[in-house]
Amino acid sequence: MENSGKPVIQTRSLTKKYRLGQEIVVAVNEVNLTIPRGKFVCIMGVSGSGKSTLLHLLAGLDRPTKGEVDFEGYNLSAMSENQMAAFRRKYMGFIFQTYNLIPALSALENVALPLLFAGVPQKERDKRARELLVQLGLGDRLKNRPSQLSGGQQQRVAIARALINHPRVVFADEPTGNLDSHTSKEVMELLTRLVYERGHTLVMVTHDPNVASYADFVFHMRDGQILNGG
Amino acid sequence: MNKWDILKLAYRNLWRRKGRTILTTLGVVIGTASIVVMLSLGLAITENQRKNMERWGNLNIVRVMAGMRFDDKGQPIGAGKPLNDEAVAEIRSMQGVVAVSPAYVFGGEVRMERKRGYIQLVGIDPSQMQALEFKLSQGRYITPEDKNAIIIGYRVGNNLRDERELRRMMASKGRAISTKIMSVSRPQPVEPAELLGKRLSLLSSPSEGNPMDVRPLVNLEVVGVLDEKDMQRAYEAYCSIDELKQIKKMFEKTMQPAQKSGIPRQRNDPNQPGPDDYQYIMVRASDVGEAKRLSDALKRAGYNAWSMADSLEGIEKQTRTMRAILGGIGGISLFVAALGIANTMVMSIYERTREIGIMKVIGAAVADIRILFLSEASLIGLIGGTLGVGLSYVISYVMNDLGLRFIGMPGPAGPGEKIMVSLIPPWLAIAALGFAIAVGLISGVYPANRAARLRPVKAIRMDY
Ligand SMILES: Nc1ncnc2c1ncn2[C@@H]1O[C@H](COP(=O)(O)OP(=O)(O)OP(=O)(O)O)[C@@H](O)[C@H]1O
Ligand SMILES: [Mg+2]
User: Fold this and answer.
1) Given pLDDT bands bounded at 50, 70 and 90, which one contains residue B410?
2) Is the pLDDT of residue B414 over 70?
3) The domain containing residue B446 runs over which residues?
4) CA neighbor of B203 nearest in space, from B121, B144, B265, B261
């Protein structure tokens, strides 16, 4: 990969404030963060410390009140919504706590969906999605709807969907939050193995120390600030 | 994103909520069908009237009549120009004229074999017959070489009756007037084909006191019989104008002095046609629209012009209002259906907020989401419109089959012909389908914009 020494993401004074009536909540406060390439980075903190907000800012899903996100040399704040969507299609993958699969679509179609928005022809989409699902041990569940899958299986489908476009960075927000400890371990091992094999950068939000133990770096967050910041 | 993929996705999304989609679609079906059926009623009325009028004359023929001119409200506005050769020349030079022939009318009694009857002889320019839409069912047109050839309307034979019967009636009723007898008993219909090649003898004016005392003046040969669709000309016989003028002179010589004096001789009154003036002039325009223009131009030029196209326009004006009302009634139900689509789509957005957010997160562009929702709404319009048009054809078929005579729809055609109650021309079906899709599309604009504007973070933060 070119410029392999450079960090994938860098932030400068990244700040997000919310107004709740008269009160102003500072969810993310002057964060300067560097995400190294090809590593697994965890963001830990108590509930309400601003982890999800930070993740959304890093991924360009939300716009900061102040500061900047530099993603592979591009300033996300300067992009239009459509440019950002195109950027996500190309460079990012997402995994959520609640899996967030599309209920009407089969496992295969859910995994292929990002490629559909990227304009990849159906044959190619299906081929790539099938290969990935087989790797994740779901070769016999291709036609199942999300409601016909267990939580662990759904999260594996979600992982496949996040990886299908070979993203630079995979963002995961409490991916094991809804799973029992056994399944949680399974999913984490699978995810970390794939991410290393395929050379993705993984940015994960969690408050589970067991999950954080898989990470190369752990950032601790409190009241919108990174305590051991980059 | 591929358009076909979006359509497929839209279609699947619709089927996720089968019940709701079916109910919404049903609204469009009913809305489309009510517009189409309502309009088809109005169109059937217009069509019936148009057919009726066509039976009475060609729509692109303008007639210029002698005598008084009338304004639009039917008030007389003075005498029209005299119809002579000058007038024919003037009309021939007018724009949009394809063919012109003056008509010189002269009625007389004729004998054919053992039958007798009164017919109207119309002298015209034989070279213009074809262009003036004289259509033949039998025989041929008159050529310049012909001598005393005539072409007759297909019902002319019906006005002739057996001379023996006439004599019997004479005897029983005593001294009756021959023309009166004609209208008493119904003559036997004669097959038009039987008339072809027959000889009609024009009879002299009867001697005073004995209507049966007549002698043949000229022999006319039937070379052609007009088509039976031409009802306006069904009882007339056509020959060359020059021949008819001579025949008339011959006839007048045979008249009794008393009868002669009865002929008006007011040459100075411009309202009365001179003896050599024409009764009317037939003008053929290139099409119906041209006929209307020509008719107006002739009126401006001081002629008493009339065309079927004039009347048709009046009827069309009438039925246009009717169609607008009927269409409006149908339109209301389609409007309600449009609200149904919009409502369904908005509800669907509420349900799918999270899903829309996810699609944006994994890379759907703003336009993708908008097109997806517009496609879903248009699909409801397309499916509903297709079924609605199909349903309209079924309803139309049933209504026409039943005939619905009791409603008292105006304009039954000929005898034995069923009244058309509902008419769906292809353009109406296509327009209705297009309209239904447009209604779906328009109803989808607001929901689609809402969905497209949805912020992905908001959507995925829901239920956290
Ligand atoms: N849209 C919003 N409007 C107002 N305040 C918000 C909004 N979104 C988040 N916040 C506030 O910002 C702070 C950070 O929220 P965030 O979701 O980032 O926390 P978190 O660390 O992800 O918590 P958890 O572990 O529970 O997911 C919280 O105090 C939250 O109430
Ligand atoms: Mg969170």
Assistant:
1) very low
2) no
3) 3-55+315-461
4) B121
Residues B24, B107, single domain; the answer is no
Q: What is the DSSP letter of B228?
A: T
Interhelix angle for B288-300 vs B308-361, to 10°?
Answer: 130
Considering only the beta carbons, identify the residue of B5, B16, B363 that sits closest to A85.
B363
Domain-embedded: residue B244: yes
**Average pLDDT taken over every residue of chain A:** 92
Q: What is the CATH number of domain A37-61+81-229?
A: 3.40.50.300
Let me know: does A45 contact A207? Beta carbons within 8 Å: yes
Over residues A144-195, the pLDDT tens digits come to: 999 999 999 999 999 999 999 999 999 999 999 889 999 999 999 999 999 9
Say whether both B181 and B251 belong to one domain.
yes
Mutate to test the interface with A, among B16, B361, B371, B372 (most CBs of A within 10 A): B361
- Residue B65's φ and ψ, nearest 5 degrees, are -105, 155
Cβ burial, residue A116 (10 Å; 0-12/13-18/19+)? buried
Best of A49, A58, A220 for a ligand 1 pocket test (most atoms within 8 Å of beta carbon): A49
pLDDT digits (tens, 9 = 90+) for B295-304: 888 888 888 8
Specify the pairing of strand B149-152 against strand B216-226: parallel
For residue A52, report the distance from its CA to the centre of ligand 2, in Å. 4
Residue A36 to chain B, least CA–CA distance (Å): 23
User: Could you tell me if B265 and B365 lie in one domain?
Assistant: no
* Predicted confidence (pLDDT) at residue A41 exceeds the cutoff of 90: yes
Same domain, B79 and B220: yes
Q: Is residue A20 lining ligand 1, measured as CB closer than 6 Å?
A: yes
CA-based nearest residue to B380, from B446, B334, B437, B448 = B437
Same domain, residue pair B450 and B347: yes
Same domain, B133 and B50: no
Are residue B170 and residue B259 in the same domain, yes or no?
yes
Q: What string of H, E and C letters represents the secondary structure of B383-400?
A: HHHHHHHHHHHHHHHHHH
Q: Interface pTM (ipTM) of the complex? A: 0.92
Phi then psi for residue B196, to 5 deg, are -65, 135
Q: Is B438 on the interface with A (CB under 8 A)?
A: no
Structure tokens at B69: 């001119």
